[in-house]
Write a structure and sequence with these properties.
By secondary structure, this protein is mainly alpha-helical. 75% of the residues lie in helices and 0% in strands.
């Protein structure tokens, strides 16, 4: 087990190194950099001033030299200073990860608690009206874009019924503290949580249903039923355990979303999480933040895959990691 984990970590480091090279090449090859965006339309900016700014921000180097300068600092834990925010990138990410985690954790828990049981219920009543209804809801959740659902929720429940605030995390006109502040933040997060949960339950429901249908058609389930075991024992003690591997795979893939934020949803609801900051940096050509943010997401993705592979051996004793 430990040899497998060490080997996977070593491979992950090599993958991150390759990802960083591709990311830097793509970012530096994009039309319009931070200096161009900052100086466009300003008549009092001379070409000499532009070249001086490009030199200050390290954009006057070629791609190989620029990457070498960046990676030599990144290896030491220095990801540079954000062009757009004028703050160390590591400090911004460290602060905003908690904001995104506050939004993503309830979504993560709700998608599992709603999606997996719905998939099991749908599989135990195949081709019934209930099955068709649950499947339809799941496919709608998978198909509807997050920005469209967010706009609909804001239009109906924020601007129409005025039940929830349309954006932000706190009420600007109030100075809440303690439990009142907690409730105010919770009230602001209701709509984005509903939006992300509705979109996420479809995947869990679909995987749980399809794998449960496959397991329920196996010989050992027929044998368990023939022995007179209660249906609940057959479903949840025997069948469900054999559907955990694909569900564990999805859970492992959800780990980046817990910390990396939901870029589109955070922007639409103006939640100052790491996804919102990542979007602003991307649109402004902020190379240090975009590099650190994307490598952060890549590292979380590799970590999620590793945890999922390790979990396979825990949920299914037949699997051995070698």
């Amino acid at each position: 087990m430990w040899q497998y984990i060490v080997r996977r970590i070593f491979i992950s480091v090599m993958i991150l190194f390759g990802i960083s090279i591709l990311l830097y090449i793509l970012i530096r090859s994009m039309p319009g950099d931070y200096i161009t965006m900052m100086t466009t339309g300003k008549n009092n900016v001379t070409p000499a001033m532009v070249e001086h700014l490009r030199h200050l921000y390290g954009l006057d180097t070629n791609i190989p030299q620029g990457y070498f300068n960046w990676i030599s600092r990144a290896i030491q834990g220095d990801f540079g200073v954000s062009f757009f925010y004028q703050r160390p990138v590591a400090d911004i990410i460290g602060e905003k990860v908690l904001v995104s985690f506050t939004l993503a954790l309830p979504v993560f828990i709700l998608t599992i608690l709603i999606g997996v049981p719905l998939g099991i219920i749908s599989a135990t009543r195949p081709y019934s009206k209930l099955d068709y209804a649950i499947t339809t809801i799941a496919f709608v959740g998978i198909s509807v874009p997050s920005f469209f659902l967010a706009v609909v929720l804001k239009r109906v429940f924020a601007y129409g019924l005025k039940w929830f605030p349309p954006f932000g995390m706190v009420t600007a006109t109030e100075d809440y503290t303690g439990f009142a502040l907690f409730m105010d933040k919770s009230w602001h997060l209701v709509l984005p949580i509903v939006c992300l949960t509705f979109i996420g339950i479809g995947s869990y429901m679909r995987y749980a249903r399809s794998n449960m249908l496959e397991v329920l058609d196996t010989d050992y389930i027929r044998t368990a039923r023939a022995k007179g075991l209660p249906e609940g024992t057959v479903i949840y003690s025997h069948a469900f355990r054999n559907t955990l591997i694909p569900i564990v795979t999805i859970i492992g893939g959800s780990i980046p979303g817990l910390f990396a934020g939901a870029m589109i949803t955070e922007n639409l609801f103006q939640i100052p999480g790491i996804g919102w900051y990542g979007y602003q940096s991307l649109t402004n050509g902020d190379i240090p933040f975009v590099m650190a943010f994307n490598l952060f997401v890549a590292a979380l993705t590799l970590l999620g895959n590793l945890l999922a592979d390790i979990s396979y051996a825990l949920v299914d004793p037949r699997i051995r990691l070698k």
